[in-house]
Amino acid sequence: xxxxxxxxxxxxxxxxxxxxxxxxxxxxxxxxxxxxxxxxxxxxxxxxxxxxxxxxxxxxxxxxxxxxx
Length: 69
Hints:
This protein is mainly α. The chain has one domain. The protein has 3 helices and no strands. It is globular. The protein starts with a helix and ends with a helix.
């Protein structure tokens, strides 16, 4: 992907992750893409990894919220 196209795509990903409140994806997207490129991950494996991190963060935050309550 060309530099300009990649930048626009990243901006869209960040925008959508904010709208959908996907904090883990927003925090980790650059590193995850870099890692996926290095490892030649399939789209399915890449997406599964992103969603797994999002799920883990939500579970952890849920535990913290229950402890505070």
